[in-house]
Structure prediction request, 498 residues.
Amino acid sequence: MTWIQNCMTRICTKCYPLLITAIIAGAVVIIARVKCREWKLQSLASWISEHTLANIIFWVSCAISLFFVFALYLSGNDLNKLSSGKDGQSIITGSIAMLGIITAAGALVMKYQDEKRNKADEKRKNRDEQRGEFSAALERLSSESAMSRVAGVHTLVEVADKYEQYREETVRVLCAYLRSDHSKDDPVIESVILESLGSHCASDAEPDCQWSGCGLDLHGATILNPFIFTNCRFAAVNLDNVTFKQDIKFRNCEFESLELKNVDPHKDLLLSDLITKEPYAIQLAEETNTHRFQVVNCQSIWKINIFGTIEKIWLAGNCKIGNVSLWDESKIGSIYVTHTVRIDRFDTQHCTIEKINLQNKSEIKDLLLMDGSTITEIAFQNESQIKGKFTMVPSNKINIDKLTMRDNSKISELCIDDETNLEGVITASGEIGQLTTKGNCGIDCLRIPLKDAIKTFDLQGGHIKTCFKPKDLKINDPHKVVKEFVISPYQSSEPIIS
Prediction:
C-alpha cells in the first residue's frame, strides 16, 4: 500500500507542471484568438503565415520565450540554477520536455485543422462541380435549339438522380418550364418532362431515382400533351387554372394536397383511386368543353363545381363527395352516379341535362333542382336512393320530361314547387315516401303501378293532368290538383316503363 502511495505521489509531482503548462497554453491560445478579433489583428496573423521567414522568426521567438518561462518556473524564479550541474540539466530537460509537449499538441491541432480544411476544400470543390453540372443543364434548357433543350432535360434528370440535393430544385425548374410560354417545339420537350416526372415519382421507382417527395406547381400552365400519372406519390400538387389540351388522368396516386380549381380539360378528365391527406375540391372552368369527366373511388372530395359542356359525367365506385353543383348554362349529356357513391348534396342551376341516372345502391342525401334547369330524364334504379329531399324550387321554370324509378329505388320526399313542369313521373318497383306539389307546378302524367309506390300525398297546389293508379289506392286531393284519375290494374299488359 505504501508503494502505491509513493508511485501516485511521484506521478502527481511529475504531472503537476505539465498540467499547469497545458492550462497556460490553452489560456494563451484562447486569449490570442479573442484578442486577435478584438484588436483586429487577423490581417497581421495572415501576413505572418504567408511569409516563411516571418513565420519561422515568430515561432522560434515563441519557443524561446516559452522555454525561459518554463525554466523560470522549474528553477523557482532563479535562472542561475541552469548552470549548476545536475539541477541545471534537470531544469533544462524539464523545460524542453514541457515545450516539446506543447509543440506536439500544437502539431496535432494543426494537422487536425489541415485535415478539416482539406475536407472542407474537397467538399466545396465537389459542390462547385455539382453546381457546374446543374448550371450546364440549365443553360441547355434555355437554348433556342429544341434538341439542346431536350438534352438539357435529360441532363437535369441525370444530375437529380446523381445528387439527391438537386431533386426538388430540378422538379421546380421543370414545372417552371411547363408554366412558361410555349413554342412550336414544346410538345416534344413537354413529353420528355412529363415522362421523366411520371417515372421518377412512381411509388415503385428505384431508390436512386425516387422523386416521390416532390410537389408539382403547374398553376396557369397550358399542357399540350396527355397528362397521365399512374401509381405516383406527390407532395403538394397545384393544377389551378391549368388548360389541358389532351387527356388528364390520375390513377392510384397519393398526394399531400391537391389543388384543382378552374381546370380546363379539352378531352377526358379521370381521377381514379386517389388518396389525399387533405380534402380537395374540383372546379371546372366556365369554358370547359370535354367528352368525359370521371371520378372513381375517391374519398376526400368535399366539392365538385361543374361548368361548361360535358358529354358524360361518371361518379362511380366507393366515392364520398360533399357537394356536386352544376352552374351557369352548363350543358351535360349524361350523369351517372353508380356503384355505392355517397353524395351529401347535388344541385343544379341554369343547366341543361339530358339524363341523370342514379343506380347500383348509390345515395344522394339531398337533390336540389333550381332556377331554370332543363332535364330530359331522371332515373333511379338498382336500390339507389335520395335519403333526404328531392326538391324542385325554381325562381325560373324547371322542365323535366320524365322521372323514372325502378328496382327498389327510393326517394324519401319529392317536393315539386312553383313553375316546375314534369311530363311524366313513373314508379315501377320504386318508392317515394312523400310526393308534395306546391304553387304553380305541373305534372302531365303520374303513373303509379303499385299501391305503396307513393306512401304519402301532399297535394297543395299545381296540377297533375292524368294520374294512373291502382283501384284501391286512395289519394286525398282537397285542392283538386289531379285533373283526371285513370284506374289501372296491378298487372298491366302494357309496359309501364319503356
Notes: Confidence is low (pLDDT under 50) at residues 1-16, 490-498. The chain is about 35% helix and 35% strand. Residues 85-141 form the longest helix (57 residues). The first strand starts at residue 216 and ends at 217.
